[in-house]
Amino acid sequence: MNQLITNHYLCGLRGGIPYKDAARIEYKKATMKQPKDLCYDGTIACSEQTSAENTICVKDLNLCPITYLDIIDNKNQAEPDSTIIKFKSNGKTLYLAFNKVKDRLPIIRS
Prior knowledge:
Distance between the termini: 12 Å
Helix content: under 10%
Radius of gyration: 16 Å
Number of helices: 0
Strand order of the largest sheet: 1-3-2
Number of strands: 6
Strand content: 15-25%
Order of helices and strands: EEEEEE
């Protein structure tokens, strides 16, 4: 999709904690339990939709990492539960879609 954007920058602010320091689930509890039940005391799962191996636990949900990011030309192509930002590039309307609930590990570089 990068070919859709020319002469533009999409900027973001890095935040949260580094992935290498992220709290993961207690694997000994991982048998058939919901992600919310897998986190250590004092933390909460970023998403109820992630599998045990992709669950990140945080003390503050504002620190949850982005797990889905895409540039699309039709906002209906976005993953469910995404935030969608409309912008124009070379006269064409495009959308930046992202969320924190896609069942995969956080995006650490784009």
